[in-house]
Amino acid sequence: MTTTKTKAAKSKSEKAKKPKKSGELATVKGGKITPGGTEAKAAKRKATKSKAKRKTVKKKDKPKKEVFTAKTADRQILYQHAVQSPEEDVKFLARVYRSKRGKVAKHLREDFCGTALVCSHWVQRGEEYTAEGFDICPDTVGWGVEHNFEPIGDAASRVKLHIKDVREKSAKKPDVRTAQNFSYFIFKQRAELLDYVRRAYKDLAKDGVFIMDIYGGPDSMMEMKEERDIEEGFTYVWDQVAYWPATGEYKAHIHFEFEDGTEMKRAFTYDWRLWGLTELIDILKEAGFPEVETFWEGTDSDGESGNGIYRKSRRGENCEAWVTYVVGYK
Ligand SMILES: C[S@@+](CC[C@H](N)C(=O)[O-])C[C@H]1O[C@@H](n2cnc3c(N)ncnc32)[C@H](O)[C@@H]1O
Prior knowledge:
Blueprint: E1 27-29, H1 75-83, H2 86-101, E2 107-111, H3 117-122, E3 130-135, H4 138-149, E4 159-163, E5 176-179, H5 190-203, E6 209-216, E7 224-230, E8 234-244, E9 249-258, E10 263-273, H6 277-286, E11 291-299, E12 306-312, E13 322-329
Parallel strand pairs: 1-4, 2-3, 2-5, 3-4, 5-6
Antiparallel strand pairs: 6-13, 7-8, 8-9, 9-10, 11-12, 11-13
Bound molecules: S-adenosylmethionine.
The site of S-adenosylmethionine (SAM) has 21 residues, from β3.
């Protein structure tokens, strides 16, 4: 029997609550930043992340819960709560590199970084950790500088954010490069995706690894909606509106619904090609990666949903919907 692993893939984790310090902020390269801007082109979704936050805050210290409504909510905040799991992500990225190479990855590159939440968590691992983020949308990156880097103080100075296309070169060759939440689905032609992956291969440091995620399974091709209640007090809706099998073209929206009955419709819209896993593996190999592995999520005790733990598997698992990591080793 097939199972669905779209409910609890990567578990979300508690945010770092570091005090605001004076200090240099993340450096932004290649464009002007408008902090707090709202007109980001697109952001991301993940049909799969669980709400397994570990809350250890004592009752009396608990900050007052923010009440979200369509009128007052910031869509980037909603996105980060609903879609991203930066603590789990950086642990996974570090683990994959360490277990294959037997040493510690220090320099990370986050492609399609948006608000660069993954970079911000990576550099908080320690002083020797550095990161670069690439995104073409200055408003989204500016939002990240204000909300994800100002609060982390000096660690922010170890990040360079580039308002540049992901096909551009890094300032320093990364040990780990990642493209998450399927953002590379914006490349609709095989030649375009191959060119991007080839550039990524060349730009990696010696022993570098390139970690992408991919969404698939029969559900990924259906016109359907998936709703998920988010712990912070709103509902995330992943709305797959169209899929054309002959071209792979795929259109989807993220909507948010609130406890007061209001809705934020089409907070984010995606116009993608739904790439197949075997196509992606072939592209990585053609681009030069001598070794490619996939990591699959384990099954929760309910026997159905994912448990957020990813292990290497050669053949994968046939679920109705899955999110898998594809890793190319230089
Ligand atoms: C879906 S968001 C990803 C947000 C976040 N990194 C995540 O994983 O959830 C996709 C981002 O890719 C950016 N983007 C789209 N095309 C790009 C390109 N060719 N080069 C760099 N960034 C691009 C958009 O501006 C947007 O911020």
